[in-house]
Specification:
The complex is a heterodimer.
Chain A lengths: L2 H42 L5 H18 L1 H10 L15 E2 L2 H4 L12 E4 L10 E4 L1 H18 L8 E4 L11 H13 L5 E2 L1 E2 L2 E2 L1 H14 L3 E6 H10 L11 E5 L11 H12 L6 E5 L8 E4 L4 E3 L5 E5 L13 E6 L9 E11 L3 E7 L8 H9 L1
Parallel strand pairs in A: 1-15, 4-5, 4-8, 8-9, 9-10
Antiparallel strand pairs in A: 2-3, 6-7, 10-11, 11-12, 13-14, 14-15, 15-16
Helix pairs in contact in A: 1-2, 1-5, 2-3, 5-6, 8-9, 8-10
Chain B lengths: L30 H12 L2 H6 L2 H16 L4 H14 L3 H16 L4 H6 L7 E4 L4 E4 L9 H10 L3 E4 L6 H13 L1 H4 L2 E4 L6 H8 L4 E5 L2 H10 L5 E5 L3 E6 L7 H16 L9 E7 L6 H18 L7 H17 L1 E4 L4 E4 L13 E7 L2 H7 L7 E7 L2 H10 L7 E4 L23 E4 L1
Parallel strand pairs in B: 2-3, 2-5, 3-4, 5-6, 7-8, 7-12, 8-11, 10-11, 12-13
Antiparallel strand pairs in B: 1-14, 9-10
Classes of the chains: A alpha/beta, B alpha/beta.
Amino acid sequence: MTARFRSERQAALSSCAMAHESTRGWENRSVLAERVAVLIGQMTKGEAEPSHRDGLLLSIARFQARRVEPYRRLLKARGVDAQAVSRLEDLPAVPTDVFRAARVAVHPPSRDVRIFRTSGTTGGPRGSHHLSEAGLRLYDLSARESAAQAFFAPPGQARLISLIAHERESPDSSLAYMVARFFEWFAIPGSAYVWKDGRIRIQELRKALDEAAADGHPVCLLGTSFAYVHVEENCRTRWRLPSGSRILQTGGFKGRTREFSAEEMRGMLEARYGVPQEDILAEYGMTELSSQIYERTLPRRLVPASWLRVTIVHPETLRPVQGDDVGLVRIEDPANVDTAWAVQTSDLGRRLGEDGFELLGRASGAALRGCSLAVEEALG
Amino acid sequence: MPEGAVKGIPYHAEGIDTDMSTDSPAAVPTPGEISELTQRIESTAERLAGLGTERRRRALAAAAGRLLDASTPIARRALKELPDATGLSPQMVQWALRTSLASLSAPVPADLAASCRPHRDRLHPVLPRRCSIILAGNVFTAGLAPIAFALTLGIPAVCKASSRDDVFPRLLRQALGEVDPEVAEGLAAVVFPGGSEEHLKSLLAGCDLAVVYGGDETIRAVRSTAEATTRLIEHGHGLGIAYAGAAAVSGTAEARKAAARIALDVAAYDQRGCLSPMRLWVKSSGGVSPRRFARLLHEELERLDEDLPRGPLPTEAAAAQMQWRAVAVVRGELMEGRGHAVAWTGSQEIPLGPGRRNIQVVSTESAEGVARRLGPLGIHLKAIGAACDEEEVSRLRTALPRPLCPRIVPAGTMQTPPLTAYAEGAPPREGWLRWISI
């Protein structure tokens, strides 16, 4: 056997091994995605324990440690061997800014079916979240289950009125995507988008709400904080929307113009639309996650869906804080099987009650983010 | 309350060491009280001018001496209160006091003195009646230059300290009061909430000259509030960069020396100042590679972690640091110390760090290459710390795009500009005086 033949054979074997590993890796990812789907279904019905979720999160973390280069580098920099760790809090989360700096994905670009991007209003590169087909299915599953439980219960009863752009107008907005899915899953005749061609159509909003007030059909208003403020400043009409109506508010002010506290915002919405404050809920989500977190009231707090794990961590050590100390919000989301199982935000928060937490704003100095800013830009 | 005192403004009777502990902060004065204060300070103009430049300079030097003399109560109070107020470590506070107050001991530069005299009977300087100095809170000694300038020239000044940190201006005022109450009468320090238009209006009403330190929002607020006749000297948001050229990378010994100087520039004021270098470019074709230089910088910053430790990290800074360091890890190599980090990213740049001793090192082929990269910073680029020879400095300077006008200084001296340093591309005395031309 000549040296050249040995060399060529070795190269061929290596290539086959990589292809096999790649295929096996993809199969593993498919298995994980399937397990996540089953978990979400089970946890929705209360048929699985948090320990099942945590075990799956650990599997996903270990998988991503091998497959997601930025995560591999973060682990190496921290001196953490994901295969040897058994506690989730000992594994670093991926800070949100990493999504601006690198591709965070298990799969190659050829398998992207959807790319969500951050608002891009901070002047720097936009963060991007790359979803494969299976990842997008998990996104849909998580969004549907959590929204159905938290906001649209019971679903199919209310007209949806969106002050958020249609996904056609904002194809890389995860919020626009989610709202478009809500329309597919939960909208009934009479539902409408009142954001068109880059602005809110106040007349159309007025018409939709007048109709609802007249015929007694409840509505679900979906909007960003800044969109609601825009209506407030450009419309004097006040409504008393029918019982069963709800308002979903997403995106804050992020330390930019026209700030309202959460209480002020709810007061304003109650006064404008006649919807009681207990039916005005905030949604907390971000481009880098596949799942969203909704508010519950009495007491008012953000309560993650049971398949998520939210920890408040110390800003320097990134270890869990004690009790209800203030720290940075860290979110572990198994639906992010394609990308980053754990995301580290720069949002300030603290534990509230047994099952929830509250947001206390952004650690200013960290990059501003959020769909509310994109709305602000469009509205000038 | 003694006659002439204003509620909320500490009043120091001649020669008495008044307790100015920040345990009991003074109440915020009303706009009306600020107006009274500005009028009172303005009324000292003739008396202050009549004391003469040399006496005023000696008073400033003596006040500086008291603040540096550990045996005096005021110096002890400074070391006790300034770390908490500024967020800097006690060692850094001491370093800052030592290096900045030293400039007050020097004689008034001949050209400064000369620039304030009539010229051939054709040009006669006219002092402002009063100067308002509005300070930011990131570098507590930043107010020293305008205060020293004002008093040296004989211009009464009301200093609006940052609501985040008003300890140093008040201590300086007190120290002056202890050594020369007549000079001290020409200076007052006041605090009011940032964003209060009414207070700002009162401060600026009838003011000939306003010296403003702060971000874009502060500058805009002052511009829109100041009267049309008020001359503004603006020191807006800024940053610095550093360059290690051929001489610095010629060998290990030279590289280590250069790294030590640059490390001091990074560590000073915890990299929070508008002169702090936020990125270091290192020439690539030398005896010491840029990566090796980054490692040397890391080692020197580790030494400073011991000698001049970083102050406590606020939550916001910790969050920004966490994000930036993660980006550095995924895009390059991160060298982390107890109180600093150096990101080596080859020739690729990552977003500027959050300060607090987090610095990126990038390789470059030449000084010109660095200069070409600086355009986007515009006039926000305040200083370049250069570890290179004169020839490279000249090439760097020549290649800077308009309108950039930083000070280019030897590495290690970025954060200790003399009182008479150029700033914002202008001579130090520019804007302070008006002239009658005949």
